[in-house]
Specification:
Number of domains: 2
Strand order of the largest sheet: 3-2-1-12-11-10-9-8
Radius of gyration: 23 Å
Helix content: 40-55%
Strand content: 5-15%
Number of helices: 18
Shape: globular
CATH topology of the largest domain: TIM Barrel
Largest sheet: 8 strands, parallel
CATH class of the largest domain: Alpha Beta
């Protein structure tokens, strides 16, 4: 199972480098790629991991206020808009957006006879393609002083004979569709086919961004398979689908969707997946999943890009979920056997135990959480989740048996009394 982490902020760059062996690859959002072009050109070569780009074109068909701050586009999305303008050598794309969000009528000029807006389609195709194909190329014509630093890094890498083949696969531009009867579905198919015909030497993946009502409708599933024949693989973004929160029916529909989609014989990667997707891989071949580091287990397409930090959350492998600091202190203080033995936590616990005399469990837990730096919370998650992946991959691992053991353990340890969220475990085992 390939697990990818989404690069969301530049200070996660060091985190990904220092914990290099805990994941398979990375996913970069299109607006992030446009904003940090020079940094990424050098960084991805240093990281030397498989990667691909989520174009994030769906934002232009939704409420534009989602990507604005005080009436102006957020810097990263403005850079993405500028990129589309540069790629077309015109201000066509930005002029379109000044009129408001893109709508189906911007693409389909007439239904009978069918007439497509080829200019807009080409702007999206060419811009998205160049963003992905040129991600490793540094613009040496730049006048920025910082360019010297990146050139030096690239020079050092060339001396070490490090080679990068580029993006793992090309992703076609896409828009959110609530169901396959929406005109956006037809537009997505058109964009995919146009991209596939233009980039014949590349593996072009489609990104299916849709509502979870599609999951339980076999007619719509078959329609997707039939219309996306030119896709070399499927990337999934199920709107507002959080595995931790989903009821049994939604989880079963998700399982059925994957089962049917696998019949197309193409790779499937869930862009917003987690431990439940990992468990499903024991029954159905799912090629990979992506998430943020300690966040991003799901996403609402209309969720504003607010930016900013997130509160520290400690990952408890027993329930495959996070706890806020206060709860983590109570859980680890009452149950010292749950102390994590990963490369991040174990040395810190050992250091604290030597200093606290006598070693009181509650005091140890409080000192541990207080001394765990924000980046260490995320690093702990990366190591802990990596051990989960290895465990699930073992031939003798049975998801239902292991989940039932964990449910029993949470009951014995009375974790519910400590405000630990665990009801998802029961839903997971019943849906599998």
């Amino acid at each position: 199972m390939k697990n990818y982490y989404r690069i969301g902020i530049t200070n996660e760059g060091k985190l990904l480098q220092e914990n290099h062996d805990t994941y398979y690859g990375v996913v970069i959002q299109g607006n992030f790629a446009a904003l940090y072009k020079d940094w990424l050109a050098a960084y991805l070569r240093q990281l030397n991991k498989p990667f691909f780009i989520d174009p994030r074109t769906e934002v232009f068909g939704l409420d534009l206020n989602n990507i604005k701050k005080e009436n102006d586009f957020r810097v990263s999305f403005q850079r993405l808009i500028d990129h589309f303008d540069r790629s077309s050598n015109s201000k066509y794309f930005s002029a379109k957006l000044r009129q408001g969000k893109l709508s189906p009528t911007d693409f389909i000029l007439s239904k009978k006879p069918k007439k497509w807006n080829i200019k807009l389609i080409n702007v999206l195709i060419n811009g998205t393609l160049s963003l992905q194909n040129n991600i490793l190329n540094l613009d040496t014509s730049s006048n920025k002083r910082s360019i010297k630093k990146y050139l030096k890094i690239l020079q050092e890498l060339e001396n070490e004979d490090k080679e990068m083949s580029g993006v793992e696969h090309i992703v076609a531009p896409y828009f959110y569709f609530p169901n396959t009867f929406s005109p956006w579905f037809e537009i997505n198919v058109k964009l995919l086919n146009t991209m596939a015909n233009k980039a014949k030497d590349s593996d072009v993946y489609c990104l299916l961004c849709f509502d979870n009502e599609v999951l339980g409708n076999n007619e719509e599933i078959q329609k997707i398979i039939k219309n996306y024949k030119q896709a070399k693989g499927f990337l999934l973004w199920i709107n507002n689908f959080y595995e931790i929160k989903m009821d049994i029916n939604n989880l079963k529909n998700y399982k059925n969707f994957i089962k049917e989609l696998k019949k197309a014989g193409k790779p499937i990667i869930n862009l917003y997946g987690g431990f439940y997707t990992l468990l499903l891989s024991k029954y159905l071949k799912i090629d990979g999943y992506c998430r943020g580091i300690g966040i991003g287990e799901g996403r609402d397409v209309e969720n504003p890009a607010t930016g900013g930090g997130t509160p520290n959350r400690y990952y408890l492998q027993l329930v495959h979920n996070f706890m806020v600091e206060e709860v983590a202190v109570k859980v680890l203080g009452r149950n010292p056997e749950l102390r994590c033995k990963c490369n991040i936590c174990s040395p810190l616990f050992t250091e604290i135990i030597k200093k606290i005399k006598p070693p009181n469990d509650q005091s140890l837990a409080l000192e541990f959480i207080n001394r765990l730096a924000p980046q260490k919370f995320k690093a702990h998650f990366m190591h802990s989740h990596n051990s989960e992946i290895k465990k699930v991959s073992e031939d003798e691992y049975d998801p239902k048996i292991e989940l039932n053991k964990e449910i029993q353990s949470t009951s014995t340890k009375q974790l519910r009394e400590l405000d630990v969220r665990m009801t998802h475990l029961d839903r997971w085992v019943k849906s599998l």
